[in-house]
Each structure stands twice: as C-alpha cells, then as structure tokens.
Design brief:
Ribosomal Protein L24e, Chain: T, alpha+beta, 26% helix, Ribosomal_bL28_sf, single chain, Ribosomal_bL28_bact-type, two-stranded antiparallel ribbon
C-alpha cells in the first residue's frame, strides 16, 4: 500500500533527480504521513487515522466527528 492520506488523498509525487553531470534517475517525494489516534466521543472509542500534516490541521479545524462523517460518506472504513 502506498503512503497516502486518508482525508486529503495526498500521494507520493514522482520525478527525476538531476545530478551535476545532468544524469537523471527516478525518485519519489513521499508526503509526510503520520498515524494519529483520536478519541471519538460519539462512539466512546479511539480511532487511528493515517493523515498528512495538512490532514491533521484539517481535523483540528473541523473536529473529529465532522471528519469521520466525511470519511464515512466517501465509503472509507474508519
């Protein structure tokens, strides 16, 4: 499974590394994915989400309940 954010959908970016001699080799830029635990008060349980740093800020702004509702509406298992 590639590293991707459950909320924002951020995935790795692909491109080339270019050396001083201008040789090109493949590389990838991974998003900053972190596993965070959140308390879901409505269900009285902890949930674990794999989020990018922007996704963590979004959860802080919207709240856990709204975020989980958005994920479930999309059909993602939480």
């Amino acid at each position: 499974m590639s590293r991707h954010c459950q909320l924002t959908g951020r995935k790795p970016g692909f491109g080339k590394s270019v050396s001083h001699s201008h040789r090109r080799t493949n590389r990838r830029w991974d998003p900053n994915i972190q596993s965070r635990r959140y308390w879901l008060p409505g269900e009285k349980r902890w949930i674990r989400l794999k989020l990018s740093t922007k996704g963590i800020k979004t959860v802080d702004k919207l709240g856990v309940d709204a975020t989980v509702a958005r994920l479930r509406a999309r059909g993602e298992k939480v």
